[in-house]
Amino acid sequence: MTIEKEALSDVGAGVCCIIPPYVLDHLVQSSDARIRQIAVDAIANASAVRAVRATLAMMPAFAAVPSPAAKRHRLIYDAKNGGFNELPGHLIRSEGDPKTEDIAENEAYNYAGSTYNFYKSVFARNSLDDHGMTMISSVHLGRRLNNAFWTGEQMCYGDGDGRIFIRFTKSVDVVGHELTHGVISHTCNLVYSNEPGALNEHFADVFGSLVKQWRKRQTAKRADWLIGGDIMGPDTTAKSLRTFKAEKAYENDPLLGTDPQPKHLSNKYNGSGDNGGVHINSGIPNHAFYLAAMEIGGKAWEKSGQIWYKTMLKLTSTSQFNDMVVTSTESAATLYGNNSREHKAVTKAWKSVGF
Ligand SMILES: [Zn+2]
């Protein structure tokens, strides 16, 4: 099997998948043939989903399936290990149906519900498009697939290879992250490359983490601030995919290498891999959000989350990091007052990461 490293770094870009291309690139280099094959399958799925997503990103309203009563409406499908072209698969459970025997089906249903309830109760937002669109999820996509995707229309989850990753429905922050890509596509619709793409990934991580914190009723201080902490398998030392804290999520892991996310502007990645570093440079605003939330204190969705939500509604598809800094600082002043504790905390947080 010959795979061009250069080609790989581009495959998977433009897809809102939870596993970044740099992780799959690492796994393709593994000395274990089975891990290599599973990584190649994950990359093939990512490129199939990318084509569809690129089209839907241009017209998100067409992708929104209305719900019967314009309120919470979940549909769970089983892809039965079929590929991307067979999506969504077999309808297993509709809104209000009893739980099934399948843990992934129940997690996809429950965590999509938590994400809906979070947006409704914290931001008075009615589903991803704010008009009650149906939340569609397919589980058991592919065989041992190491990824989860937002296609522009629906969520889909792989089962993981059982070694590096386990089933992708297990982390509520992963589910919240992917569904937030849907919210983004119906609001500022940030383009998925370079700084706007890193901001897209950033908002998905912020609200993914907040869904988990809100579900657990955790304060900022008690939260783990990890993304994907529950999907890591037994063969990796990584405790998560990403962390909002200053530390690295993993270092010198035999399978995953070292977490490449910078936490300061001076270490920003300027290469073309990962679509201009969308999953890499998101580490900079992520850390700023964490610092602001810790400084403000209490539960992060109550104030920091409100500031960030208002900012997301104000940004445009081509917003850069500087726009993010200016708009979030202004939003803090508008919501809580000029020179308020919240305003000062946001200003200080951006300064700490180099702005
Ligand atoms: Zn993402």
Sum this structure up briefly.
This protein has 12 helices and 8 strands. By secondary structure, the protein is of the alpha/beta class.
The percent range for helix content is: 40-55%
Low-confidence stretches: 1-14
Number of domains: 3
Radius of gyration: 19 Å
- Would you list the SSEs in sequence order as H and E? HEHHHEEHEEEHHEEHHHHH
Task: Categorize the overall geometry.
Answer: globular
What's the N-to-C terminus distance?
A: 45 Å
Secondary structural class = alpha/beta
Give the CATH H-level superfamily of the largest domain.
Neutral Protease Domain 2
Biggest sheet: strand arrangement: 1-5-6-4-2-3
**What profile does the largest beta sheet have?**
6 strands, mixed
CATH class of the largest domain: Mainly Alpha
- Number of β-strand runs: 8
Beta-strand percentage range: 5-15%
Indicate the mean pLDDT.
Answer: 90
- Discrete helix count: 12
Bound ligands, named by name, code or SMILES: zinc ion
**Under CATH, the topology of the largest domain is which?**
Neutral Protease, domain 2
**CATH architectural group of the largest domain:** Orthogonal Bundle
